[in-house]
UniProtKB/TrEMBL annotation:
The keyword Cell division does not apply. Residues 26-45 have a biased composition (Low complexity). Belongs to the binding-protein-dependent transport system permease family. GO terms for cellular component: plasma membrane. The keyword Transmembrane applies. PANTHER family: ABC TRANSPORTER PERMEASE PROTEIN. Residues 1-45 are annotated as: Disordered. This is Carbohydrate ABC transporter permease. It comes from Halorubrum trueperi.
Length: 346
């Protein structure tokens, strides 16, 4: 009995001495009371060390030397130039002397809204974007379905259809200027050869056919690109879906319309964005065909921008046209990038 009492007293003494060495913090964590400052400092050092280790091992810092310098160059020479162009559009600068940055205004944009040539160029640009994009997608899809039928000379057809895209706008314009020539062009010669002389036209001189001729030539050049994009999408669809639809009694047309084409939505979106960008950059094609004055029936914003800025030496007005063109590009690419981000593909 005395030994049990002595053991209990000894245990209480040990617990009380241990309790004096430990202090409970406000948040409930227990730390050593003998050296609280040293404990907190060591904890902070450990936290800093772990943070440094995480930063050192992060992919962001590892990849920074690779994308950092190019990113700075793009930021300065691309977005910096766009920002400076926007500031120039708020001045009345005509290219002589120094721009007056003290009195910025939106007068150039007000003049644009009242300019009939801008209205015509803006309308033609919209028609070119939508009609050219839609026709190229349709033709590209039909070509992709044709090539997807496991034909023997598939690679040959694919090369032939894709070859026009490898040509520059300048080469394409020279080629089609000969095709559209009213006197000895291939189109009119073929029409005369089959006895359809009444259908021969001055394709790139008549205001009624100028824009349609441009759209047809650009569609010829870029429908092969759409074919390649759609062909990749078709090859990604499992063959079992075709077989299941045919077992259900669906016709070939219904299989493509109800089963296949809805699954090509991503291919359609990506191809459409690229086509719109190329349509906005069609300045080279029109410049070779018509020069700086294609007329209101075929004028587009990129040609108007060049004509105003470099032919008439009205840089502020040309910068305003350029900003409208930039806004149109952002209006197309921005929603696409947002959808890609929402899908987790960016």
């Amino acid at each position: 009995m005395p030994s049990r009492i002595f053991a209990a007293l000894t245990r209480d003494t040990d617990e009380s001495s241990t309790g004096q060495q430990r202090v409970r913090t406000d948040g409930g964590a227990v730390v050593d009371g003998t050296d609280g400052a040293d404990g907190s400092s060591s904890s902070a050092e450990t936290s800093d060390a772990s943070l440094f280790t995480r930063l050192r091992r992060s992919r962001f810092l590892e990849s920074l030397p690779f994308w950092g310098p190019p990113g700075l160059l793009v930021l300065f020479f691309v977005y910096g130039a766009i920002s400076w162009n926007f500031v120039i559009s708020l001045t009345g600068w005509e290219g002589l002397g120094q721009p007056d940055y003290s009195s910025l205004s939106t007068d150039m944009y007000t003049q644009l809204l009242a300019d009939p040539s801008f209205a015509a160029a803006f309308r033609n640009t919209l028609v070119l974007l939508f009609v050219f994009t839609a026709l190229s997608l349709v033709v590209g899809l039909l070509l992709a379905i044709l090539v997807d039928q496991k034909i023997r000379v598939e690679n040959t057809f694919r090369t032939i259809y894709l070859l026009p895209m490898s040509l520059s706008f300048v080469v394409t314009a020279i080629f089609w200027s000969w095709m559209y020539n009213p006197s000895n062009g291939l189109i009119n010669e073929v029409l005369r050869g089959v006895g359809l002389d009444a259908l021969t036209q001055a394709w790139i001189s008549d205001p009624r056919f100028k824009l349609a001729s441009i759209i047809f030539a650009l569609m010829w050049q870029f429908s092969g690109y759409c074919m390649v994009v759609y062909l990749a999408g078709l090859r990604a669809i499992p063959e079992s879906q075709y077989e299941a639809a045919r077992i259900d009694g669906a016709s070939t047309l219904r299989v493509y319309w109800r089963v296949i084409i809805p699954q090509l939505r991503a291919s359609t979106m990506s191809a459409a964005v690229v086509l719109v960008v190329f349509a906005l950059k069609a300045f080279d094609f029109l410049f070779v065909l018509f020069g700086v004055n294609p007329g209101q029936s075929a004028d587009i914003l990129s040609v108007m921008m060049y004509r105003v800025a470099f032919d008439r030496i009205q840089w502020a007005y040309g910068s305003a046209v350029a900003m409208v063109l930039f806004a149109m590009a952002i209006g197309v690419i921005g929603p696409y990038l947002y959808l890609q981000y929402r899908r987790g593909e960016l």
